[in-house]
Amino acid sequence: MPIDIFEPLEQLVFGAIGMTALALADSAGRELTFSGWRALVILGHADKTRVGTLAQGIGMSLPSASRLIRRLERDGLVMTERDESDRRATLVSLTRRGQDLREAVVIRRRALMAEALEARSPTLPKGLIPGLNAIARAFAPYS
Fold first, then answer.
1. Please, is 95 exposed, middle or buried when counting C-beta atoms within 10 Å of its C-beta (0-12, 13-18, 19+)?
2. Greatest extent of the chain over all pairs of C-alpha atoms, in Å
3. What is the pTM of this model?
4. What is the CA radius of gyration of the chain?
5. Nearest residue to 103 (alpha-carbon basis) of 36, 32, 13, 27
6. What are the C-alpha distances in Å from 115 to residues 31, 87, 103, 119, 121?
7. Does residue 110 have a pLDDT over 70?
8. For residue 76, which of 29, 23, 119 has the smallest C-alpha distance?
């Protein structure tokens, strides 16, 4: 792997984080932490997710994830239920409001991306899209 790829990839990631922060501020209408946003992203990929799986995906302890879930539940963004196959486990899923907020943030972030690309990159280099798709596939386990 050529080492000179890391600097532009890091700049891309930092820019995406900044755009996400702006999209959250514009769309959430209240404070939603990056951990809360990460939970909405993970929950958007599955119908129901165990609290432990969600904690691992966010990178936080089980007690911290449980507190986050309670806060998101109070805000009407997620709902919880007991796992019928293992009554000790709790399943978490997005509410309609959580799905709508997730979608609003993605739409706003894509608008910010489009603005940035239109303002700074009148033409995209050939081969960029396949290259970005390959990078996206490599990064997919972390999304």
1. middle
2. 56
3. 0.85
4. 17
5. 27
6. 24, 48, 18, 6, 10
7. yes
8. 29
Domain boundaries, the chain: 3-142
pLDDT tens readout for residues 90-109: 999 999 999 999 999 999 99
How far are the Cα atoms of 51, 80, 89, 108, 132 from residue 48, in angstroms, in the given order? Answer: 10, 9, 12, 26, 30
CATH (one of 1.10.10.10, 3.90.660.10, 3.40.50.300, 3.40.640.10) for 3-142: 1.10.10.10
- Determine contact, residues 52/89, Cβ cutoff 8 Å: yes
Distance CA 119, CA 107 (A): 18
